[in-house]
Each structure stands twice: as structure tokens, then as C-alpha cells.
Design brief:
Elements lengths: L20 E4 L1 E4 L8 H12 L4 H16 L10 H13 L4 H20 L24 H14 L1 H13 L3 H5 L6 E2 L2 E4 L8 E4 L2 H8 L14 H14 L12 H12 L4 H8 L4 H4 L13 H10 L1
Antiparallel strand pairs: 1-2, 3-4, 4-5
């Protein structure tokens, strides 16, 4: 693991955990100034900031990596130089800007909590690294037919889940976390979302059929599904239809497929944002280039001007 040393750290260990008194009028004792490592802060505040699950494990891994970069130093002030040094090491280690942003988001959330609780007394400015707008992979109808048919040959339950994902645009974890009482009057409500904001969307006919065919024994229509098992069947099915080398063809592309079909069908971007549950319109704008038909009305205007 590459590491970094530079300004921003107190080299004198005697400064750890001292008591300080200040005299403004009558003397008063302030709280002990303690120091922490990144990992120690995660142990202290992780349970309240992140729910148990895969995302929390990813966050733990991200923060552990940054703790190693910092040589497990304890601190009560986190300087801008320190943050810039972390970014430099991550970039030299081959991390893309998108990956760096995900890792820094976890660090920022943890440090802001520690600062609010009085454990950290100075924070740097977390600037979002510019990300490339990569290609969005979505399924064309013929690809969906072939892939879903192959998934069905392995598992009827996984086939129903795939249909539900592509017609609702929800995330895999959101579908698995769905409960029966979240489905009412032809619509479904997602409460366990990445953004923490609940949303409701109406169901297509085949999405309703996918739910209706599920056994009522469990707490939800897809509650028995394990993400890693679904992903394993997905990758096996895509290999069997000749798409094994398509690294972008992952289950999350079903969400992209739903969004692309809404935009191509003339649904305005703000409605697509509401459907997907994006926190910002910028996230949804990734699909705006698909709405080329919206620009067709511009041509007659320009032609009239040219003829005039």
C-alpha cells in the first residue's frame, strides 16, 4: 500500500490527550482534547452513520485503506494538506476520479460527524473530483429477450426479479428489501433507498405479474434472493448468450435500461428523476442525450430563418 507523509500531522506524541484550561474571567476547564485514527472514528461513529450491510462493509474498506495511507496517525485536526496527500496517493494507486469520490464521500461523512461531536476541530474542503461521463450500458429489446430467457432456464424466481428490476428501475437491494405491505393499488413504495428518501412508482402489467407469482411465505416477493447468487446466475446467463466479455453488462444496467426507455419515450427528465429517486437532476441528465427527438422541433425554426 503506498503511503504519504507531509504537513498536517503533529509529530510530538506528548500532545495526545491533554487537559487545557482557558482564563476568560474565571478559569474554566474545557473537555479533554483526544486524538483518533480514521479507523477508531469508524468504530465510534460507524454504527450510527451506516446500516449493516454490503455498503457499510465497502465504507469500512475505504476508510481502512485511507488509515493505512496515513500510517494510522491519530489527529484532532485534519488539514487540507492531509486530504490532498490522500488524493494524490489514491490517484497514483490507479483509482479513477469516480472511485476517489466514493472513498472521499465516506471519509467526509465520518469526519463531519466527528467534528459535530467535538472530536475533530478543523476540517478541509472536500472538492468533488471531475468524473468522466462514461458510456451508459442498457439493454435493447432483443438483448433483453435473449438474456431473460436464459435466466429463466436457471431460475423462475430470478427471472421474475429481472423483469421487476427493468420495469421499475429500482436497485437490486431495493427490490430485495421490498415488503408485501409496500405494494398497494398497482404501485410500489421503496423505503430502503440509497439516498434515504422513499419513493413510489406505478407498476407495469408484467411487474404486477412478477409479484403476483411470488410465494407469500416470506416477508416480501424477493426477500429470499441473495444478491451474490443472483449476480452469479446473471453472469452465467450472459456468458451463455455470447456476452461474457461485455464487462458493462451487469445487473445495474437494468436500471439504466428503464431510464433510457422513459427518456426515449418522451418522458421529461424531471419525471425520470422522480421515478429513479435521484437526489439531483444532474444524475438524471446522464440520460438526456437519448431524447434526440426533442430537438426535432428546432429544425423547422432554423430552416424558416435560412429561407427568410
Amino acid at each position: 500500500m503506498p503511503s504519504w507523509t507531509g504537513p498536517g500531522w503533529d509529530a510530538d506524541p506528548s500532545t495526545d490527550a491533554q487537559d487545557f484550561t482557558y482564563s476568560i474571567g474565571a478559569p474554566r476547564l474545557l473537555r479533554e482534547v483526544a486524538t483518533f485514527t480514521v479507523s477508531e472514528l469508524f468504530v465510534k461513529y460507524g454504527p450510527s452513520l451506516w446500516e449493516d450491510g454490503r455498503h457499510k462493509e465497502n465504507v469500512k474498506s475505504f476508510l481502512g485503506e485511507m488509515d493505512e495511507i496515513l500510517h494510522n496517525h491519530r489527529f484532532s485536526i485534519f488539514s487540507q494538506d492531509t486530504l490532498d496527500g490522500i488524493i494524490e496517493v489514491l490517484r497514483k494507486g490507479g483509482n479513477s476520479n469516480a472511485t476517489i469520490n466514493r472513498k472521499l464521500a465516506a471519509l467526509s461523512k465520518l469526519l463531519r460527524k466527528a467534528c459535530k461531536m467535538g472530536d475533530i476541530h478543523s476540517l478541509p474542503e472536500f472538492r468533488r473530483q471531475k468524473e468522466r461521463s462514461g458510456r451508459i450500458r442498457f439493454l435493447e429489446p432483443d438483448e433483453e429477450d435473449r438474456l431473460f430467457k436464459q435466466i429463466l432456464s436457471h431460475s423462475e424466481e430470478y427471472h421474475r426479479l429481472a423483469v421487476f428490476l427493468v420495469d421499475t428501475g429500482c436497485r437490486l437491494g431495493e427490490a430485495i428489501g421490498l415488503r408485501w405491505n409496500d405494494i398497494n393499488h398497482g404501485a410500489v413504495s421503496f423505503w430502503l433507498t440509497k439516498s434515504g428518501r422513499s419513493r413510489s412508482v406505478p407498476l407495469t402489467k408484467r411487474a404486477r405479474e412478477a409479484i403476483a407469482a411470488a410465494e407469500r411465505a416470506g416477508p416480501g416477493p424477493f426477500a429470499r434472493v441473495k444478491q451474490y447468487q443472483f449476480r452469479a446466475v446473471w453472469h452465467q446467463a450472459k456468458a451463455e448468450i455470447g456476452l461474457a466479455t461485455d464487462d458493462e453488462l451487469v445487473p445495474h444496467c437494468l436500471r439504466h435500461t428503464c431510464a433510457s426507455r422513459l427518456v426515449r419515450g418522451g418522458i421529461d427528465i424531471r419525471r425520470v428523476q422522480m421515478w429513479l429517486g435521484h437526489q439531483t437532476l444532474q444524475m438524471t441528465m446522464r440520460y438526456s442525450h437519448l431524447a434526440t427527438h426533442d430537438l426535432d422541433v428546432c429544425v423547422p425554426v432554423l430552416e424558416r430563418r435560412a429561407q427568410g
